[in-house]
Structures are given as structure tokens and as C-alpha cells.
Amino acid sequence: MDRPVVRDAALLFLRVVLGVAFIAHGWDRWFLSGIVETTGQFSAWGVPQPRLSAYLTATAELLGGALLALGLLTTLTAGALTLLVVAALYFVHLGNGFFVAQGGVEYPLVVIAALVMIVVFGSGRASIDGVLQRD
């Protein structure tokens, strides 16, 4: 299993799955639930500057997810999204138990672990970053 093609395929799969999940969350915040609803949720959760935080979060999720899926600026994007999810863990999920059904820490911990894998191992060769780095 320690073959470059297997590692690259696994990183591609991980990046695309995470990217699509972030895009879906950002799309929801911008276009389905809307920024006003997101601002209200953030305010209820005690997120500082809820309106600004809603705009920043929705944009970071939408654009960051796309960058992850494409494998462009991958390490930087994964690091920034990790910080975003850590903030969500702190402001929203702590104190709600473990399981995601109760709003607990389960989901954000899995996402943080996956993002850290991308920060550590990079985007792989099946990415725009990988193409640009080839000699």
C-alpha cells in the first residue's frame, strides 16, 4: 500500500469528498438558508460578530471547498479550513456531547483529522498543485 499511485488516489478521494462537503455547506449558507438565517444561528450560538462571521464562513466554505477539490493552494486552504472548523467546534459543538445527532463534536473532529492529513501529506500528484510542481 506504500505506492505513490495509491497515496495519490487516496489524497484525491479525500480532497474531493471534503471539498464537496465544504461547497455544500457554503452553498447552503449563501443560497439556501441564506446569510440572514446563518447570521441568526451564529448570533444564537454566541459567535463573535455574527454577520461578518457568517459572510466569512460561507465564503471560506464555498471557495475553500472548490480549492480543495481542485487541489489548488491545497495545504494553505486545508490549514485555513482547519482553523474555521476548530472555531466551529469551540463555539457550536463543545458541550453538546459526542454524537453529531445531538450537535456534538463527532463531525468536526473527523473533518479536522481529515484536513490535518491533507496539511501533512499535501495534495498528491492528482491535483493542480501536483501538476505545477512536476519537473
TrEMBL record:
Its main location: membrane. The keyword Transmembrane helix applies. The keyword Cytoplasm does not apply. It is a multi-pass membrane protein. It holds the Pfam family DoxX. The chain crosses the membrane at residues 12-32, 52-73, 80-101, 107-128. InterPro entries: DoxX, DoxX-like_oxidoreductase. Keywords: Cell membrane, Membrane, Transmembrane, Transmembrane helix. GO terms for cellular component: plasma membrane. It is found in: Cell membrane. Belongs to the DoxX family. This is DoxX family protein. It comes from Corynebacterium maris DSM 45190.
